[in-house]
Automatic annotation (TrEMBL):
The keyword Ribosomal protein does not apply. Residues 144-216 form the HTH crp-type domain. PROSITE patterns: CNMP_BINDING_3, HTH_CRP_2. It holds the Pfam family cNMP_binding. Keywords: DNA-binding, Transcription, Transcription regulation. Transmembrane segments: none annotated. InterPro entries: cNMP-bd_dom, cNMP-bd_dom_sf, Env_Response_Regulators, HTH_CRP, RmlC-like_jellyroll, WH-like_DNA-bd_sf, WH_DNA-bd_sf. The keyword Transcription regulation applies. Residues 10-122 form the Cyclic nucleotide-binding domain. GO terms for molecular function: DNA binding; DNA-binding transcription factor activity. It comes from Seongchinamella unica. GO terms for cellular component: cytosol. This is Crp/Fnr family transcriptional regulator. SUPFAM superfamilies: cAMP-binding domain-like (SSF51206), Winged helix' DNA-binding domain (SSF46785).
């Protein structure tokens, strides 16, 4: 699996001693599918690391439509911003399936950062990467077509949440509806653009999955559409 470092996971970047302290200071909490880890407006009293499952960040329009701003995978951390600035949660964090998170209280966070100053720098690095990512998304929304945005979103996910089946096929487990929620587009529009990528020979669609047929071609055609940084910064290959 390819993992873009520093985007969401800071605990894995810590020294062994600091990682051990994080585990000792935190507790495991299970969250059922559809349950909230926290809600918009909640007081920020905890930091979370996803252990298993998936958790999405979302908000809701006045019409009740869910708008997904991101989804966390195992190993990712979230909720740290509120512990730093003390302001209420700005989004909902909802379990997309039965999940488990490690929960670090504010007191535990303060103790961890006091004992291990490296934590502050790792969190700062993670937040810098997120800001760069948000700048890129804003630029894409204003300058690129939906087709280009879909292709780049697929490319990002291929470099951060891909999987392999026993046949070693590279795929992303996501529905077209979920992809539409991430890009603010209808499922029908997403389907049209994905089928165009199928015609290009870049992907193949199967139920609930996008199979990457030609990752290098996807990268070559859609990575450098903007003048900014590449969509896929240096990444680590894990087993």
């Amino acid at each position: 699996m390819r993992v873009i470092p520093h985007m969401h996971a800071f605990v894995s970047e810590l020294s062994p001693e600091a990682r051990q302290a994080f585990e000792e200071l935190s507790v495991l909490r299970r969250v059922g599918k559809g349950e909230a880890v926290y809600r918009q407006g909640d007081k920020p009293n905890e930091l979370y690391q996803l252990v298993e499952g998936r958790v999405r960040l979302c908000n809701y329009s006045l019409e009740g439509r869910e708008v997904v701003s991101g989804e966390f995978q195992p190993g990712d951390c979230f909720g740290e911003m509120g512990l730093i600035d003390g302001l209420p949660r700005v989004s909902h964090a909802i379990a997309s399936c039965d999940s488990a998170v490690r929960v670090l209280s504010r007191a535990g966070f303060d103790e961890l950062t006091t004992r291990y100053p490296e934590v502050d720098r790792k969190i700062a690095l993670m937040m810098c990467h997120r800001v760069r990512y948000l700048y890129a998304l804003n630029e894409e929304a204003s300058e690129l077509t939906l087709h280009q945005r879909v292709a780049r979103c697929v490319l990002r996910m291929a470099y951060s949440r891909d999987s392999n089946n026993p046949e070693r096929e590279l795929f992303i487990a996501i529905s077209q509806e979920e992809l539409g929620q991430m890009l603010g587009a209808s499922r029908q529009s997403i389907n049209k653009e994905l089928k165009a990528l199928v015609c290009e020979g870049i992907i193949e669609l199967r139920y609930g999955r996008i199979y990457i047929q030609d990752l290098e071609r996807l990268k070559d055609q859609y990575e450098y559409l903007l003048a900014g940084e590449p969509i896929t910064p240096g990444y680590q290959q894990t087993t």
